[in-house]
Design goal:
Blueprint (H helix, E strand, L loop, with lengths): L1 E8 L2 E8 L4 H8 L18 E4 L2 E4 L12 E3 L12 H8 L9 H17 L17 H7 L10 H14 L1
Parallel strand pairs: 1-5
Antiparallel strand pairs: 1-2, 3-4, 3-5
Helix pairs in contact: 2-5, 3-5
Amino acid sequence: MDAEITLRVDGEAHRLTVDTRTSLLDALRERLGNTSPKKGCDHGQCGACTVLLDGDRALTCLALAVAHDGAEITTADGLAPAGELHPVQQAFLDSDAFQCGYCTPGQVCSAVGVLDEFERGWPSHVTEDLTGRPEMTSDEVAERMSGNLCRCAAYVNITPAVQQAGGAR
């Protein structure tokens, strides 16, 4: 069965007809040609497909496209529409927080979501004081980014990059 949906991706509206079983990741990559989110595991375990979905980070391989009709989707490409790098993208470059780059778009989108969670004051599993604002410690950042795997193990540079970007916001 097919359904007609509209997705707003990186500021541009797209109307498309998709099979109701189509993942949001496949709609983005195969139907819209947006290769920023990567297909890593296709099981929600690696985070390579992470985007910002209506402002919150989400795994697109686990989301059905039809469930997000009308959604606002921001990929790593859409974080810098005017060509100037987003503070997280700049921090990843400054900190050399990537190697092969396959996971980088998902890492970057997740990091943007992490920084928003800090701004909202949301605690994580490792937050010690649940009544205060969480501090952007290495443990806090590592915990929040733990859903994004890097097969090259660039974590030693990813965590400081997120902390740097947090200071730039």
